[in-house]
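Escalation from tier 1.

The customer reports that the assembly of six entities below gives different structure tokens on two consecutive runs. Tier 1 could not reproduce it. I'm attaching the input and our single run for tier 2 to review.
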Amino acid sequence: MNRLTHINDQGRAKMVDVSDKESTVRTAQASTSVEVNEEIYKAIVNQTVKKGDVLSVAQVAGIMAAKNTSQIIPMCHPLALSGVDITFRWETSPYRLHITAFVKTKGPTGVEMEALTAASAAALTVYDMCKALDKGMVIGPTYLNKKTGGKSGDYLREEQE
Amino acid sequence: MNRLTHINDQGRAKMVDVSDKESTVRTAQASTSVEVNEEIYKAIVNQTVKKGDVLSVAQVAGIMAAKNTSQIIPMCHPLALSGVDITFRWETSPYRLHITAFVKTKGPTGVEMEALTAASAAALTVYDMCKALDKGMVIGPTYLNKKTGGKSGDYLREEQE
Amino acid sequence: MNRLTHINDQGRAKMVDVSDKESTVRTAQASTSVEVNEEIYKAIVNQTVKKGDVLSVAQVAGIMAAKNTSQIIPMCHPLALSGVDITFRWETSPYRLHITAFVKTKGPTGVEMEALTAASAAALTVYDMCKALDKGMVIGPTYLNKKTGGKSGDYLREEQE
Amino acid sequence: MNRLTHINDQGRAKMVDVSDKESTVRTAQASTSVEVNEEIYKAIVNQTVKKGDVLSVAQVAGIMAAKNTSQIIPMCHPLALSGVDITFRWETSPYRLHITAFVKTKGPTGVEMEALTAASAAALTVYDMCKALDKGMVIGPTYLNKKTGGKSGDYLREEQE
Amino acid sequence: MNRLTHINDQGRAKMVDVSDKESTVRTAQASTSVEVNEEIYKAIVNQTVKKGDVLSVAQVAGIMAAKNTSQIIPMCHPLALSGVDITFRWETSPYRLHITAFVKTKGPTGVEMEALTAASAAALTVYDMCKALDKGMVIGPTYLNKKTGGKSGDYLREEQE
Amino acid sequence: MNRLTHINDQGRAKMVDVSDKESTVRTAQASTSVEVNEEIYKAIVNQTVKKGDVLSVAQVAGIMAAKNTSQIIPMCHPLALSGVDITFRWETSPYRLHITAFVKTKGPTGVEMEALTAASAAALTVYDMCKALDKGMVIGPTYLNKKTGGKSGDYLREEQE
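Tier 1 run:
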């Protein structure tokens, strides 16, 4: 006769069941930044980077990454996003590109991961397009600014500075 | 007769030609971190997170993201990676999980983006699996530690702090 | 103090918000064609192309591309398609394979892009499988025949010729 | 004048229309197994396999494959899964790892393919991680245990021994 | 005893063996176009399209599609591309955007499909971003302009007018 | 001062380094099967399955899965395949469709996983296209028949019956 040994599933991964969650409008906004040197700042602003217009490409990268989040983050639920918007602003002392990703959906789970992944992919794209000039760029800190919708309620990050 | 207007391609994106670059062994190591609260630290270490063993899943996410980098970063060249290794260490005051990604290939371009993307995906996965406990986690700073191989030579980040 | 410069977002890309749009049944039909020489026409019809049965493979390629449209077209919203059908007919003077893609969904946005992408992928697959015989094949014109559903109403392309 | 020849579409593939199907909760459970030798059994249980903790990685692979099913199976409808769970148990005479995949969704089609694909990907991952020890491992039989929900009703596989 | 029936593989698809082909530098250039009305022409040129800067996004879409070609075209061999460049020019009577995709690799197979797929994806992206203004845009004809490298020799399309 | 705790990496996953392995021609052949009832056998052979010609679609699915293997199997190295061939034969007592996948590459690692994944995807596609007729189909056993090339030498499965 066979001896069967059940494996204790403690600590094992699963994509948790969300079929009971209501489908509602949810939004999330996440931020990151890329610290660059003056040469890179000027090359981005003057659009002289050899690989192309950095911010245009970073924006597309962020939007596509938002749509692809559940393929990048293993336990993340797939969601049909209804809107994604990536915006940039420069801080110049030191030179730091701030990236904000805003994601919206109507679905059973929140879109925090989509916003964080979009911001990260945009920042990584900036690094890629400028790394021939300097490899010392620093990405982040990356964090969630706020979310709305869902049973757990809204979240607003306390301003730090 | 048709009037043709050539669009000035200044600033437009391209995947730059690397067919003249030699295929050599190249490595890159990148780091990031996730700042967590004590509750999350304990849940990860004791493997009591509901979604599963956080570090195991983050490691797989990082390796798969490394292989998928040229699909996430638009102007990044596709490369057949020969090895990827993700390691973790904890700092406990404050609670901070340090993530290091090491990538190796034999090819015509460097693997800095693969290492940075792997580290970022691992960190995002940690956030995803623990966000039910606290949404205030902070990812990064994320940066390149070192690279070897290629015509531009080796790079070693100066220690800071 | 930091100087902050907001980047004017004029012209920057975003995936526009569709969370207010109603989820209704929508269809779209798009057409393209591949102009081939007599040798290729006979090879396709007699199923003697070395790479396999061209139309079978083109059909599968079109269906899979329809499902993958939001990964190919950056600002296109992801949608769960409910049906895809690709049909072929031959015109023989000159030899031209007409490809029609019909896509249906129940969702908040139309499926024009899914139909156009499916038709294009099917045509590209025909080119790929026959290019050893002749590289002079011409794909298209490619256009939308009609769409139904959605607030903007139905669309029917005026017959031309 | 053009001669047009309609291709008989008998036998040609399509993704059949499901827009009339109701969106309801659906579940499916599928099973497979991997027959291994004693050396591999011990290496998995003692976590001494060079490529890492086999079951952790197989579990992640299964969950990601479930989410990716409509990209692997051409005529399979895309679905937003609400939960995926992969479990393992050992039989030791002979050594056989049993893998069960449970998938849940709220949608218009069943999730049988997602459960079967998840189980298969998990088994293939076990093979990959252990093949340096022995290439004689056997995967399967792979089959559906049960499904619930949908118009076609529930299905329960008759126990076979 | 079992009766075995071999299926005649005539007409069945395969990805043909290229392991004997030499790895050499290969290039391909493909063209397509999008016929638009005056309103769309002005909106693209003045960057007033609601979804963003059309040509920037189309360019990124084309480059990413080039890298993804072997996932879109079933029998197409995967290749590590070494360079991709997408350029645009306007014809204004009628209004027609010409799109040219140039692809380069060092590998065992040509890159005709990558160039054709890149041009097609760029054109589809233009359609997607402008379709709110007019759904009557026409894509193509799409064709190969030239290729270099490989045993089959160079190809140059005869100019047609 | 920070207390640093290194995590013991025993059992953790990595994609092992293969940069020292020689790039040589490698082949692998894997088999699986699908046990079906008489109704399904007849529907496949007579091409009356509603979703289309089952074997044509299964063949395309297998080839595309072979190319996608390193995205499905987490620790599997990416490889540029040079050829994939999927063949079928019927056994009719009981009704069983035998599927064989043959994969070839010139690269640093073997293609066992690509062959096993191709065979599995083809079998899953058969199940998907016929499951409206009967959900009791059984896939497998799935195993490696043989491999050639690479330092570990050739492998030939002992015939079992």
